[in-house]
Amino acid sequence: MPDFISKSIASPWPRQDSRSVTRALFTMPDYSVRANAGMRSSRNAQPPNHRTHILESLTPAQRNAHNAKLSSYAHRPIAFLFRYIRLHPVAHLIVLCSVLAAVGCALGSQYAIKHLIDVLATGRHHPGPLWSAFALLVGLIAADNLLWRVGGWVAAHTFVAVTGDLRRDLFQYLIGHSPTYYSEKQPGTLASRITATSNAVYTSENTMAWNVLPPCIAVMGAILMIIVVNPLMAAGLLGCSAVLSVILFKLAGRGSARHHAFAAKAAAVDGELVDVIGNMGLVRAFGMTLREQKRFGATVKAEMDARQQSLLYLEKLRLLHAVITAMLSAGLLGWALWLWDQGRATSGDIVLVSSLGFTILHGTRDLAVALVDVTQHVARLSEAVKTLLEPHGMQDRSDAQPLSAKGGRVAFERVTFAYPHRRAILDHFDLHIEPGQRVGLIGKSGAGKSTVLALLQRFYDTQDGVVKVDGQDVKTITQDSLRHAIALVPQDISLLHRTIYDNIAYGRPDATRDEVLAAARDARCAEFIEAMPEGYDTIVGDRGVKLSGGQRQRIAIARAILKDAPILLLDEATSALDSASEEAIQSALDRLMVGRTVIAIAHRLSTLRNFDRIIVMSNGKVIDDGSPEVLRNRPGLYRDLLAKQHGRHHAAPDGNTPTGERVA
Questions:
Q1: Which UniProt keywords apply (predicted)?
Q2: Helices first, then strands: H and E counts in the chain
Q3: Which of 21, 177, 358, 398 has the fewest other C-beta atoms within 10 Å?
């Protein structure tokens, strides 16, 4: 294959211009985090794609423009499909030309057969015309097969490349959604919709290339050839084909609702599967396996019914077309024989007209059926992109700048915030934290403590007031630069289905192996990691299911230690640790907190005893603020909780430090 063709398949852009940036924008790296040196793993890291660097170099305004462009396809599935076809113009043009030429050769071979029959019908033995017709026929058949193979080879590369581009784009766009979006969707349906979109685009491209385009070309070419042989018969065929196509297309359009219903039910089945499998421990703990089987059976039954309705409608269309085609074929053949009987057509004309007539009639059938299939795929595509490409609820401003100073000063100025469809969680909330201060947040459940951490990371935008980091409104800062300046140890630990090493290195992907191992030692998790057969290459399972709660929490602490950010957020960072483990890790946390701004939520007040300030919250407001010593000697919620936990400590029958009462 020529070099320029290979390049057009391997890369959809020849140079890094504005169009190449558009094509490359939404690609995410598909390689795992690895140390820069010395790391050995069964899964080797892949080199970063150069499109990733283009993405990282875009300004917030450029990213917003491209995200808006993608979002505009949410209700335009056909335009979304052709967006990716346009990314590989040369390769798709080769496929188109190959199909055009191959169908032309197939039609030409029918004319060669006509010519051969006419020569034979003369009864004369002239080897020149006879073997010329034979050579033409053989050459056209050979060219036909060769052209199909060329088109198929190019399509095999290009169509797969299109699905890769599409999945990277959708993944990039999906992870840009706000937490509100994910709280309203089933994670299982989101994952299945990306796969469904990829499959729908791939199948649609194949159907259009091999089942829509060829009959279109064949029908038009056959009509042109019949016009040359017998214009009157061509007019009759054209009229019948047009009427048949219109009838089938109109009936096919009426089945669109059935195809959309099937796509929605199929997505529901995927979501139900992921939901139940992801919560299998809960299902078994409550003895609900039979109930879930019945529930899933009902969901599958609804999907099967919708699928049957869609398929049965297609069969009705095929039956209607078969009946009409049989009638037209019989009429066409009878007409051709009548012309021959009248001496107005040769034997070759009869063969050619009959063959081309069948090509036209069967071509319209194949075209109608293929278009109905495409309608099904487009319905699935529409259902998927409508959900995936919802406009982002929160994104960087066009003029957003990276966080300039990284001292760690934090300020909440008269902040009011409410989650969607709920009452206000924070009401004119004020809080100022100086760089390097260690501040603990306490209060009863629902006081707004976790919301403070979420707003600081700009997982949500406030309805009123301002959140500032180092004097900069977080709404004017790029989200990535803000979150790079913050390390988080959450209560609900999230680990990726990767190795332990990968999960620790996630805090700083460019860290060396020695730095990763040092962070693991500081977090007191090196001992249990090295005791595992695979050590740091141990796969942790989905969300870290293969590890205990305490092990997951220590890996999260190691990840935060490695990140080395100026602001540290601890959301009950030791809640999953036993007393012995908590004492071991507390020294690591103390070292980690030195020189950083720390905001910690804790239900064990003993973990806050060395903090500079304690903020007591209630109903979204600060009701008390002071050092642990001051609050201990002042009537209020802090002293009440401290007394309650101190009482529980003395009441513990085994003499061990109790977990304490959860107040966070």
A1: ATP-binding, Cell inner membrane, Cell membrane, Membrane, Nucleotide-binding, Transmembrane, Transmembrane helix, Transport
A2: 24, 10
A3: 398
